[in-house]
From TrEMBL, chain A:
Keyword Cell membrane: yes
Chain ranges of the ABC transmembrane type-1 domain: 63-243
Protein name, as recorded: ABC transporter permease
SUPFAM superfamilies: MetI-like
Keywords linked to the UniProt accession: Cell membrane, Membrane, Transmembrane, Transmembrane helix, Transport
Location(s) in or outside the cell: Cell membrane
Protein topology in the membrane: Multi-pass membrane protein
CDD domains: TM_PBP2 (cd06261)
From TrEMBL, chain B:
PROSITE patterns: TAT
GO terms of biological process kind: alkanesulfonate transmembrane transport
Residues in coiled coil: none
All residue ranges annotated as the SsuA/THI5-like domain in the record: 50-265
Top-rank lineage group of the source organism: Bacteria
InterPro entries, per the entry: SsuA/THI5, TAT_signal
Protein's name in the database: Taurine ABC transporter substrate-binding protein
Principal subcellular localisation of the protein: periplasm
Organism listed in the record: Pandoraea oxalativorans
Signal peptide: 1-35
Location(s), subcellular: Periplasm
Family affiliation: Belongs to the bacterial solute-binding protein SsuA/TauA family.
Length: 255, 337
């Protein structure tokens, strides 16, 4: 049997068609009364709201506010987690010392940090960055530890046998070998940062996609709620594309 | 029959206890029968003063005596409570009118306004530091308030009237965090309602600059920025019209207790609010508790109060909080009074 692989264009068309069919079915369900628009607005209402908020600039300012919070918290978490994770991944003593603390931190959802962060940082922007940081730091650290530990010990031993110093082993063997896994972990953490920013914006925020969703909820503007959700997905998609481009650049030697 | 000493004692004790058990059993059986006959309703409440009458009526046993088994469900915000009304989980609730207006603006016909429990104009207001003597002095300062609340509307109205809408930084601060934000100097002024209102008022260096009685609609219509209203879920109320009537009778008896015997009411309400007895009494006295007889006048349409609610809906549109003003009178139902 001759199985021909569908072309990329065909696959894209199928994906596009499925989105169109889904949106049409949703619109029809709202218009015919199958779904009460009070509970779920039709896509046309969401579209109208997007146009209105794009024209008055509020949509962009909310997206930018959330993106800034996500990137600040995410970068701070990775700056601390990557070196610390490499150290913990290569030293069993350090790991033994840090493991109990990590086990305590890892299951805590970002929401649980809100009361303490308010006491520590008040209602400032730092409080929002800290929520993203605390929500992503422990998972990021786990990814880095696992990536470092997954480096083939044979490579490390071979480098040492050839007379490489600890620093050389780290720079020439461990880092290049663990980097692809670290980067793919960070991609997941970036997605997680967006869930944290929603918690961060529940409290004392004046703008941002989380604020938009919560404010929409207060006034039963369900199309604003859906719009906020859509914008989070779109922004995550865009940041994911940017991250992939960076990944390709950084890991050029892997291509 | 050969009874052991232990068995004999057990049997004697059981027999001697029979008359008492029968008496108690008779009582509890009749109580059980009454509970079985009672109509269960789900009430959407919180520790806010608008829920005092429903809590008092429940705890005093007046609702049970009227054959109503009120199940108390707590909600953090009016919008969460109204969402539960929409989904059919709550039958009767007191809610801030802003949430009700937001739902009306979306065309929801799931509920009706059946009563107004009180006016709380003197337990919500704008606090400033001692050096601030007028709204103009707030220029360039930070003001904390919970967004989408009645206090937020008060702030928007006061700043708008003073021409300061763009000169004061208004920050969204959750109600429980407001006293802490003032103390730590993160905000210079705050608008809050009881119980945070009482806490801020007790702070040294803070003073009340304006309360709800300075709200632009208060003088003409006696309408505060977010008056409380008692609503019923229509689908439930239509099937239980007599229960709603009985409920309102008991509810306004509780309002009378709040008005005439605040000390007595406070003893029960402390269980709900956790306030000190003194604060509790003061909070009760800070509100004007309406009677059943006043309801027809208040909810008369056209009438001053309903007109005020209509102006309030239009004000929400001006401040871009809702898209269009609903015709409030369409949601008012006085047939249960």
């Amino acid at each position: 049997m001759n199985h021909r692989q569908p072309s990329r264009a065909t696959l894209l068309s199928v994906g596009f068609a499925s989105v169109v069919v889904f949106l049409l079915a949703w619109e029809a369900a709202c218009r015919t009364g199958v779904i009460d628009p009070l509970f779920l607005p039709p896509p046309s209402a969401v579209g109208e709201r997007i146009v209105a908020m794009l024209s008055d600039g509020t949509l962009l300012s909310n997206v930018l506010a959330s993106t800034r919070r996500v990137m600040t918290g995410f970068i701070a978490a990775t700056v601390v987690a990557i070196p610390l994770g490499i150290v913990l991944g290569t030293s069993s003593y350090a790991r033994a010392a840090f493991d109990p603390i990590l086990s305590f931190l890892r299951p805590l959802p970002s929401m649980s940090w809100i009361p303490l962060s308010l006491l520590w940082f008040g209602i400032s922007e730092t409080q929002k960055y800290s929520i993203v940081f605390m929500g992503t730091f422990a998972p990021a650290l786990v990814y880095v530890i696992e990536a470092t530990r997954s480096v083939d010990p044979l490579l490390v031993r071979a480098a040492k046998n050839l007379g490489a110093s600890n620093w050389q082993v780290m720079r020439e063997v461990i880092l290049p070998a663990s980097l692809p896994q670290i980067l793919s972990g960070m991609k997941i953490i970036l997605g997680l940062s967006w869930t944290c920013v929603i918690s961060a914006e529940l409290v004392a925020a004046r703008e941002g996609l989380g604020f938009l969703i919560m404010n929409g909820k207060e006034f039963f503007q369900t199309e604003v709620v859906v719009l906020g959700m859509v914008m989070i997905s779109v922004t995550v998609l865009v940041t994911d594309i940017v991250f992939r481009a960076i990944e390709r650049k950084v890991l050029r030697w892997q291509a | 029959m050969n009874l052991s000493r232990r068995k004999f004692l057990h049997t004697s004790a059981a027999l001697s206890a029979l008359p008492a058990a029968a008496a108690v059993g008779g009582l509890s059986l009749s109580g059980f029968a009454r509970a079985a006959d009672a109509t269960t309703l789900q009430y959407g409440g919180s520790a806010w003063l608008g829920h005092y009458p429903a809590y008092l009526a429940m705890k005093s046993g007046a609702l049970s005596a009227a054959g109503i088994d009120q199940q108390w469900q707590s909600f953090g915000t009016s919008s969460a409570r109204m969402s539960a009304v929409l989904s059919g989980g709550i039958d009767i609730a007191c809610t801030g009118i802003v949430s009700a207006l937001a739902l009306m603006a979306r065309g929801s016909k799931h509920f009706s306004i059946v009563a107004v429990p009180e006016s709380f104009g003197r337990v919500e207001g704008l606090f400033v530091r001692d050096g601030v003597n007028s709204l103009q002095d707030l220029k360039g300062k930070k003001l904390g308030v919970t967004f989408a609340s009645s206090a937020h509307l008060l702030v928007l109205d006061l700043l708008g009237s003073a021409g300061l809408s763009n000169d004061v930084t208004v920050l969204n601060v959750p109600a429980p965090e407001i006293p802490g934000a003032i103390q730590s100097g993160q905000i210079d002024a705050a608008a809050a309602w009881t119980p945070q209102f009482n806490r801020i008022r007790a702070m040294t260096g803070m003073k009340l600059l304006a309360d709800d009685t300075q709200f632009s609609l208060y003088k003409k219509y006696n309408v505060t920025p977010g008056p409380d209203v008692l609503i019923v879920r229509n689908a439930w109320a239509e099937k239980n019209a007599d229960v709603v009537r009985k409920y309102l009778k008991v509810y306004f008896d509780a309002c009378q207790t709040l008005r005439d015997k605040p000390d007595e009411a406070a003893r029960t309400l402390i269980g709900l609010t956790g306030m000190s007895a003194l604060d509790q009494i003061e909070t009760i006295k800070g509100a004007e508790w309406y009677s059943l007889a006043q309801q027809t006048q208040l909810l008369k349409s056209p009438g001053n109060y309903v007109d005020g609610l209509q102006r309030l809906a239009e004000m929400l549109v001006t401040y871009k909080q809702i898209d269009k003003a609903p015709a409030v009178r369409q949601w008012i139902n006085t047939s249960y009074l």
